[in-house]
Write a structure and sequence with these properties.
Blueprint lengths: L1 H26 L19 H15 L2 H15 L29 H18 L5 H15 L20 H7 L7 H9 L5 H8 L6 E3 L17 H10 L8 E3 L11 H7 L6 H8 L1 H12 L1 H15 L27 H15 L1
Antiparallel strand pairs: 1-2
Helix pairs in contact: 2-4, 2-5, 3-4, 3-5, 4-5, 8-12, 8-13, 10-12, 12-13
The structure holds protoporphyrin IX containing FE (HEM) and 2-acetamido-2-deoxy-beta-D-glucopyranose (4 copies).
The site of one 2-acetamido-2-deoxy-beta-D-glucopyranose has 8 residues, from helix 4.
Keywords: Calcium, Disulfide bond, Glycoprotein, Heme, Hydrogen peroxide, Iron, Metal-binding, Oxidoreductase, Peroxidase, Secreted, Signal
EC number: 1.11.1.7
Subcellular location: Secreted
Length: 352
Amino acid sequence: MVSTTSSFLLLVVVVSSSLMFFVTEAQIPAPVKGLSWRFYESSCPQLESIIRKRLEKQIKDDVGQAAGLLRLHFHDCFVQGCDGSVLLDGSAGGPSEQTAIPNLTLRKRSFKIIDDLRKRVHNACGKVVSCSDITAIAARDSVVLTGGPNYNVPLGRKDGRTFATEQATLDNLVAPFANTTVVLSRLATKGLDATDAVALSGAHTIGISHCTSFTDRLFPNQDPTMDKTFANNLKRSCPTADSNNTVNMDIRSPNVFDNKYYVDLMNRQGLFTSDQDLFTDRRTRGIVESFAKNQSLFFDKFVIGMIKMGQLNVLTGGDGEIRTKCDRRNKNKKLDIATVVEELEETFSALF
Ligand code: HEM
Ligand SMILES: *[C@@H]1O[C@H](CO)[C@@H](O)[C@H](O)[C@H]1NC(C)=O
Ligand SMILES: *[C@@H]1O[C@H](CO)[C@@H](O)[C@H](O)[C@H]1NC(C)=O
Ligand SMILES: *[C@@H]1O[C@H](CO)[C@@H](O)[C@H](O)[C@H]1NC(C)=O
Ligand SMILES: CC(=O)N[C@H]1CO[C@H](CO)[C@@H](O)[C@@H]1O
């Protein structure tokens, strides 16, 4: 009798604790086929520490680079999947993703940082880590180093050999003047739900924007959903619709990855229509409020969104390649003397 009761109790404890475990763990998306949490565990165990250490320095020197790197991963993943295509320099074979309008405001320095990381990693481990994986880790580290949540990144992406066209870039990214209907439907085509959409937009808690991304809300008429004082201050930074200036995206804590972006939205101080409409629209307003109230909730949902986004249409296994340089496809392998020379040069420059 006694033993039956205690084994029953034991059963209850085991079931409920494993259930709790299950609920939390179940929220973290599993790696898709071909990716894994420990992909480079034996081939490049130092990978993540090399990147983290380098970015600690870079981001300490210029915190803005964190925002640039985070956005770079987003653009990579939304256009043709996380295949490093955004990194390709158009000159290598026709127009690239980089030359499309939304990419004009990607920071030039972000591309340099990624290739510098690639050089350090390849130097330590050989040519085994893809540029797209480096971009995904750099985005995660940018979040962590500005105060955001830490999380594991599924790894094993290969770099693509095809450029995304300018049209594909326009079709897959969302414009800042989009409303919530457009944001939700665009993200739904990528398997991202309303919570993901609101959480991922929270990346705008760090970084800057050019005036031209939002001056449609100031001129000729002021968007009535925008706080008046906020609008007047923006007009001081952006005196004309085509001003080349930039402003911080989160007025409360522009360089800290926190939940203040949602507090901004609740105060009608969101910069883009795509931001502010998340609070106006009844479908997403509750989510915005819940993130404004509870930063850990935002962090949890942001991590889920990032892991989902980071696995969009990845190339794995025998598809794609490990690029020798992040801004260009590898030359065709067989007996290509140019590739050999290039790799020698690469080895040399990595030594110094
Ligand atoms: C809902 C869709 C989104 C729209 C419409 C959007 C739009 C924009 C625009 C227009 C800019 C400013 C570009 C400029 O004028 O300089 C920007 C910046 C930025 N975006 Fe987004 N974005 C979206 C989603 C995301 C996502 C999902 C992430 C990352 C997870 C992200 C991260 C960033 C960051 C960090 C910056 C600042 C970049 C810097 O300071 O260099 N955005 N975004
Ligand atoms: C959202 O934008 C789309 C496209 O511009 C437009 O057709 C639609 O009416 C807008 N929806 C709302 C609720 O404003
Ligand atoms: C912004 O820069 C472009 C290119 O440098 C220039 O043609 C344009 O006149 C500038 N706009 C303003 C408002 O200064
Ligand atoms: C905030 O969200 C977390 C989930 O991340 C939850 O565990 C916690 O109970 C929430 N706190 C409040 C005060 O609602
Ligand atoms: C049209 C244009 O100027 N595109 C540029 C976009 O950004 C990349 C790198 O950041 C440049 O290589 C492109 O020339």
